[in-house]
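In response to the reviewer comment on reproducibility (Comment 2.3), we provide here a single inverse folding case reported in full, input and output, so that an independent group could reproduce the run without further information from us. The structure tokens appear first.
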């Protein structure tokens, strides 16, 4: 029997790889896709009469409108602006206001001031910086991707072959069809469609696996622990099927009690320390003695 508190002590505060912090390939790609329009707008830098110059430029090159949202660190093509007694939703892909009103937008959001007063020297460089900043929001998703990559590397080391003995991102219905299982107990009698990060098979046993990492706390951790506890209990009664959960991260310290409740009824919950100690290579794979 494992000791929960000792197991919790082995949780890690980070699994960041070198490419975790910023996805520069995406930054370059996003910036390059609008470089032409940004360079056209560069002609406004230092303008002494930027409103009129903008209106002239917009008349000649209406496509410049589509890059305005990213100047405000927005990816949406529509931006809502609320004033007292008035609300406008500006569309920057399909103009729905006059050129003068778009000029008002540029003036009131501060973009005219930014461009005309040489606060920046090049809009391409500026947008690249904006993209770097916005990319930090994607780090949470990259953490999940890194955790999946780590688990997959151990599956490969253990001799599993992709699309032969292990599969990525499989839905419950696909598992049922491929392996002839009845998973209705974990899907509210077919009313929900669960997707697993990995599914692998060994000795006629099908293992469905979830992977996640939580470096910080939050209410989501309690919800995750409770839902996986329910899933683990439901899966115990399904022949030839085992639910496996790989999780890690010191964020679990903030949801310790809910995680312990899950740990107490869930034999096949593991962290990175378990992987490093060779749990995936054990003869009775994923089964605690």
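Designed residues, in position order:
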């Amino acid at each position: 029997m494992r000791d929960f508190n000792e197991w919790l002590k082995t949780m890690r505060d980070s699994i960041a790889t070198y490419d975790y912090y910023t996805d520069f390939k995406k930054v370059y790609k996003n910036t390059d896709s609008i470089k032409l329009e940004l360079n056209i707008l560069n002609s406004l830098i230092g303008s002494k009469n930027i409103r009129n110059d903008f209106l002239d430029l917009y008349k000649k090159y209406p496509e410049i409108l589509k890059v305005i949202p990213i100047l405000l660190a927005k990816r949406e093509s529509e931006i809502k602006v609320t004033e007292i007694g008035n609300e406008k939703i500006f569309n920057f892909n399909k103009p729905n206001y006059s050129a003068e009103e778009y000029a008002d937008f540029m003036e009131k959001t501060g973009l005219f001031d930014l461009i005309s007063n040489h606060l920046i020297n090049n809009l391409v460089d500026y947008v690249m910086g904006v993209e770097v900043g916005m990319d930090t929001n994607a780090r949470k998703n990259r953490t999940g991707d890194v955790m999946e990559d780590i688990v997959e590397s151990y599956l490969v080391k253990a001799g599993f072959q992709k699309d032969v003995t292990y599969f990525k991102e499989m839905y419950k219905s696909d598992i049922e069809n491929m392996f002839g299982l009845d998973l209705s107990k974990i899907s509210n009698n077919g009313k929900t469609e669960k997707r697993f990060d990995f599914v692998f098979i060994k000795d006629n046993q099908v293992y469905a696996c979830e992977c996640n990492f939580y470096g910080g706390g939050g209410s989501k951790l309690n919800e995750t622990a409770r839902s996986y506890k329910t899933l683990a209990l439901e899966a115990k009664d399904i022949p030839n099927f085992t639910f496996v959960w790989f999780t890690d991260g010191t964020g679990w310290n903030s949801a310790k009690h809910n995680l312990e409740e899950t740990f107490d009824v869930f034999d096949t919950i593991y962290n990175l320390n378990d992987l490093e100690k060779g749990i995936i290579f054990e003869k009775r794979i994923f089964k605690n003695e």
